[in-house]
Amino acid sequence: MTAEAPTTSEQLVAKLATASAGRGRRLLVNVALYVVCMIGALAVASVIIVVATDADPFDVFHAMYEGSLSRPSAIGLTLDRAMPILITALGGVIASRAAMINIGLEGQVIVGGLLGAVVALKLGLPVAANLPLTLVASALGGALWAGLASLLRFWRNVDVVISTLLLNFVAVEVLSFALNKSYLLQETRDNVQLLPQSDRLPSAHQLTRLGSPPGFSVSSGIFISLVLAGIVIFALGRTRWGFRLKMLGMNPNAARAAGVSMAAVGGGALVLSGALAGLAGGVIFTGTAFRIQPGFSNNNGGDGLLVALIARRNVAATIPVAFFFGAMRAGGGFLASTGVPRYLVDVVQPLLVLAALLPPAILFVWDRRKALRLAREEAAAHERPALGAAA
Amino acid sequence: MNDLSIILSSAIRLTAPLAFAGAGEYVAERGGSLIISIEAMMISGAFFGIFGSSVFGNPAAGLVVGMVAGLVVALIHANLSYRLDANTFVVGLTLNVLALGLTSFLLETIDMTPHRAGEIKVPLVHNLPVIGDPLFVNRWTVYLLIVVVPLAWYLVQRTRWGLELRACGEDPQAADVTGIDVNLRRRQSVYLLGILAGLGGAALSVGQVGLFNQNMTAGRGFIVNAAVIFGGWRLLGTMAGCFLFGAADALRLALPAIGYTLPPQVLIAAPYVAALLALCFFAKRNTKPEALARPFVRGIT
Amino acid sequence: MLASTPPTVGAGEAQASPAPAVELRGITKRFGDVVACDRVDLSVPVGEIHGLLGQNGAGKSTLMKVLLGLLTPDAGSILIHGRSVVVKDPLAAAEMGIAMVHQHFSVIGALTVWENVTLGERDRLDPKRSIRHVEEIAERYGLDVDPTARLDTLTPGQRQRVEIVKCLRRDPSILILDEPTSVLTLSESEELFTTLRTVVQEEGRAVVLISHKLDEILHATDAVTIMRDGRVVDRLVTAETDPASLARSMVGRSVSLRSDAAALGLLQVAEQTATSEGGADASAEAAPARPPVLRITDAHHRAPDGRVLLDGLSLELAPGEILGLAGVEGNGQAALEALLTSLIHLDSGTVEVDGAEVRTGHPGAMAKAGVVVIPEDRHVAGCVLGMSVAENLVLDDVDRVCRRRIVSPKLIREQALELIERFQIKTPSPDTPMASLSGGNQQRVVLARALTREPKVLVAAQPTHGLDVGAIEYMTEQLRAAADRGVAVLLISTELEEILALSDRIAVIHRGRILGSFPRAEADLERIGLMMGGHVA
Description:
By secondary structure, chain A is mainly α. Helices cover about 70% and strands about 0% of the residues of chain A.
């Protein structure tokens, strides 16, 4: 059957959504929903706090605020925490534009950081070259790891979702192996029990910091991430490559007919997202961690993925969302002062994310119901009463 | 031979939690739902299983509480994704973080006295060489699989509910036209997954280890996803996939004791690599439910 | 749940006492500003095959969706056997004895025939019993189906039989069929009509046959209700009417049966038209044997699951000629279309454009060589629904609107406005999402994009599917104009009327190969029909 009438309920809903008459009111409703949902999330968190500990929820939230936004040094910390998440998220958005779901960002961060550390610590490069090459190497590491998944997809048709997922776990083991072998990345010290960690990165090879404690202090990596964000936003929105990527993600058949190869462009997007994740690993190493230890990636990849998924329709949104995630991390560090385990951050943050998913979903359902009601009212106004029509 | 028996025992013990969740995800994926919050369901089941056993003083109650915990996670995921249209990957990943954070948090703030499930020795047969110990000497939670796995198969392949679910997984538009409520069936399959994955987590904590550790499930939820794909969306294949991981885990623990020295990382990574290789060369992709991971929106109202 | 058995009546004779099987009174349905159905009355007596005739867009499908419970009418009532009912969803419709034989939307490939037939029932699953039911129905109505076969192994004709079995299983009072013969060969259509006659006569049921094809209506129905622009414009007894009046009522103006034979679904007329006028003929003769611009040689392709899609297909196309490729759906047309869209890679065989071989399966290679396709299902590879109209108009030639790899929104907009004007695409603005456009306008976008590339070869697959007569006339003009300009046109269609009306040469495709080709003048229905069924005449 062909669609004879040009409009469907969906289109009526869309019309309602953009009707200028109600636009102002609609914005208000939207904001109100967000506020209500956020407060709801915080309320749930408060209940958990009260039930499980002696702490006062307000103290807890205040501590989180103190740690993240209350003063310049806190903001610096937030930015430090946000920058690798932002870079990873940019990679995630690129992949998702091409309809590639790269769940392996965490693994790519790990391999990137690993390779970057090898270059930084083991090659004895001159100071001027060390930092740039470290970052390049870390991008390369991430690209290679994602490239594995790309290879498996286009050579053997293995789903990207599952291959990147499994490779995450392999990456953790690769790192662990490297950190336990002195010929690889393990630290070099004399006559002492060697720990599974790398040497510390000499300060000459670190990313410079701007400002200094106790005031505002942030790693220059923040500029790298913001510049990259600008480039990615421009590239996705305004270049021929971005257009093709969008086409590929929305309709791979139409893209192929138009000359866009899934393997080349889609695979390329996957590799590029891996490169960005790897770079984030390098930034973590040279910007804040200075030493590779097991777990150094600290779920930056996972958070980056989440940010990318949340911001997938609008790349620019990665910046504020990554900032939020960074704030959560920074705030979490302060929780210990209230006697509450820092895991609470991992409760508050996802609750807020879930809360943020609710308003658009609720609005969608409301619009649908309204559209149906309007249609019925209109009919009643014009026609004779509906005999036998369902209510 | 004794070594083999020990390894097999260990393998069965390590496979059991995966198998419960695997049966659940098999059901869900046949309906077209790719759920990545299995980790959240399992770890919630693990924690609240111990919690339940502590509060009620016996392991069976713990298992029940664990199943409820898994169900709660499933309720959130299913309703956000299959009633309210939120992106299933966002919801799944977020729930994983939430569950991990919450269980870690509660572990440090609540005191519990766990009760572990008791051991069963099936009379006579447990003396069989090699397989006697692994198959017939286990904590009783493992034997629940005997009921759960065939039930899952029967549900999907032999009942009307299962037929309708499979229709939703292959061609939701056609199923809709035939009068089947696609999103309802999908939600129901996810609820079942929650119960079974919660049971799997509880089987791990209450049924086996006897306590809860932070991040106890350590990614097992994702292994279950791999197992279903490895098994070609057939229940037997899924169980085989779960066993692959269980056995690899058991080998990792056992090999040093027997005298082989392989780097531990190689052993830990081995099952994941094996799964990847299997997917490369042995996966039968034409058994994948057509509509897997595609949200259903009614075409024209 | 049995259908009520009315007293025996002669076919077509309605007595005053028995209530009609189904009656729709004053049904109105709006979608926003559009009135799809406007106070429509329809009455179908028991034992009758009733035609519902109208162009695409006339409101027939909407009306049937109301009857099936898929839509809620804004006004009006429905009576089943004289009782007023409320049909609130498809389940309720099924319980009231209303069943529809769907085309593509109701059977599931991965399940078996019996599983599909029992899908939607409520009781316990019992394979043996269901298989038995299928066999019973198949025997009673002379339908040839294998209960245990997997549905995706069946041909479209067989699938339709499964659909019919599925409907009859519910013991319906009213059976609705929507354009059923588009997937059938001529002989299968005859079988279908015979089956329908059995259904209504022996069981006291009624059938509603929705169609836009006059042939189908004239051939198979007892009475016909004609709809236009959402209203009922005429009710006639089929035996007492003729194609001309039907056409006039359907379209609303005097229509030349000859020039619109394709659009009206008049096979005989279409066949005779071009032969008598000889117009298309003459141009085919006048053009000497020019070297073919497109040559496909011995193409072989297997689908991933092993099915053979192209089995040694060879064809040649000369510039300026329209080659009509006739065939029943499912005989390789989709694979041929995919081949020429660069979507599939041949296992063996070659494709040459202007003598130069083109890499098959290589993204964009066909388009670069000058082969442009207007796809059958534009949503598959023809357009990107998520993008705007303007973006869709530049889809395969982005370079043209770029300045040094940077996309220029200004150039896109300019190009879009020009094309919207030239091809009369109805859209509120160039930035409107493609998904908001009507089917006909989406098709115009695809056509516009195809023609502006000035292709050497234009492939049009089912180009007038789902369009109203006006749009069909437009599309036909465009294709003919392209051919006059020297473009080689390959017209792939399951509608014989369309093939006969447009083609200079005709070929028939069957099971992935070309069974034969001949000039239009030599075309005769019987021969084509035989070839479509696989017999080389």
